[in-house]
Amino acid sequence: MGFIDKIEKTLEKKVSGLFSKTFKSGLEPVEIASAIKQEMDAKASILSRDRILVPNSYLVALSPQDHQKLANLGEPLLDELKALASEHARKQGFQFGEVLEIKLSALPSLLLGQLDISSEAKKIDVAWIPVLQVAGVSHELTRSRTTVGRDSTADLQIGDNGLSRKHFEILWDGSRAAVRDLGSTNGTTVSGKKIDQLTISSGTVFSAGRTDFLFNVIARAK
Question: Disulfide check for 67: which of 22, 35, 106, 153 has CB 3.0–4.6 Å away?
């Protein structure tokens, strides 16, 4: 299901059929969602192959009539727009440098059905933080070398008997990462193939023991 289809179906559930009563003419919420998506795509700043920043603050200007109608939906509308914008960013590999904000305002110069959207990245000075996700839990990697294994002597201890005491390590130089097997009994695999050492990027999944690991690099405002 696409971005526009999903917001339409989600909002229909939220407002229990309010679309048919309120939006017979003028601007519909689905058009706002589409405009935010287009603005995000247009303003994406590619820093590297797997690091793409997008604005975190969006101001949607509407005609006074449309603004009044949409204001009646209140916070549920804004919450859904934020959730769906975040989902679009995730699917595209985009990241926000700060908390996502979406605001609606009235602009007298706009006619019924028109909108104007502007955006900005309130904090563009970001740090890129490597994280290792295990069973849905993200662990920040704060060292240039982080060992992972079942033993308490590993920097990151994982309760998996299939892991060696120190099974593998993640190498991070501030911009690039690699995974290195530490002579483990069962090996470390990427896409089903055992590796000794391999350069990895954000989104790489690899396995060790009975556990899958997801490596990501996330943006954080300094």
Answer: 106
* Residues shown for the chain: 222
Residue 57: HSE in the Cβ half-sphere, 13 Å Cα cutoff: 6
Token representation of residue 143: 């060292």
Which residues in 29-134 belong to E strands, given as ranges? 45-48, 51-54, 57-62, 94-96, 101-106, 115-120, 126-134
Out of 24-33, 37-46, 59-68, 195-204, which region has the weakest mean confidence (pLDDT)?
24-33
Token reading at 199: 């350069």
Virtual torsion, Cα 12, 18, 20, 22, nearest 10 deg: -130
What is the Cα 218 distance to its own chain's centre? 9
pLDDT in tens, 130-181: 999 999 899 999 999 999 999 999 999 999 999 999 999 999 998 889 999 9
3 state SS of 139: strand
DSSP character at residue 43: T
Model-level pTM greater than 0.90? no
Which residues share a beta bridge with 58?
A: 102, 119
Q: CA 5 to CA 28: how far, in whole Å?
A: 13
Per DSSP, the chain holds a count of helices (H) and strands (E) of 5, 17
Identity of residue 136:
G
